[in-house]
Amino acid sequence: MIVGTQIVSMGLCAHTYGAYFMDDRDPWFDRMRARFRLEHGLTLGIAVAGLGFVLGAWIVGTWVERGFGQLSEERLAVLAATLVIIGTQVFFASFLLSILGLRRT
C-alpha cells in the first residue's frame, strides 16, 4: 500500500510537470485539475492519517487496560502505521502538486 501510494504520487507529479512545463495536453488531467484543489488533498491526507492515529490510540488504550502485557493487536498496529504513512504521503504530495501548478500559464 505504501509503495503503491508513492508510485501513484510520483506518476501524478510527473504528469503535472509534463502538463505545466512541457505543454503536454490531456483533457482528463484538465478536468481533474479543475475539480480537485489543494484543500481536497490536504483533507484526504489528514483524514487518513487521523484514522491511523485514532486506531493507534485505541490499540494503546486496550494495551494499557490489559496491564501492559502482551500486545495482541499486531495486525491492527501495522494497519494504523500504514494509514498514518499513507495519509502523510497524500498530504505532502498535495503540496507538491500545488507547487508545480503555481507557474502554469
Any overview of this molecule?
The chain is mostly helical and 105 residues long. The chain has one domain (2-103). 80% of the residues lie in helices and 0% in strands. The protein contains four helices and no strands. It has helices at 2-21, 27-35, 38-65, 74-100. It is elongated and about 60 Å long.
> Main β-sheet: number of strands, strand sense, barrel status?
none
Q: What's the number of extended β-strand segments?
A: 0
**Mean of pLDDT:** 91
- The share of residues in extended strands comes to under 5%
Number of domains: 1
Give the ordered list of helices and strands.
HHHH
Q: Helix segment count?
A: 4
Helix fraction, binned, reads over 70%
Radius of gyration: 18 Å
Distance between the termini: 35 Å
Overall 3D form: elongated
- Low-pLDDT segments, ≥5 res: none
Structural class: mainly alpha
Transmembrane segments: 41-64, 76-102
Pfam families: GT2_TM_C
Protein name: Low-salt glycan biosynthesis hexosyltransferase Agl6 C-terminal transmembrane region domain-containing protein
Keywords: Membrane, Transmembrane, Transmembrane helix
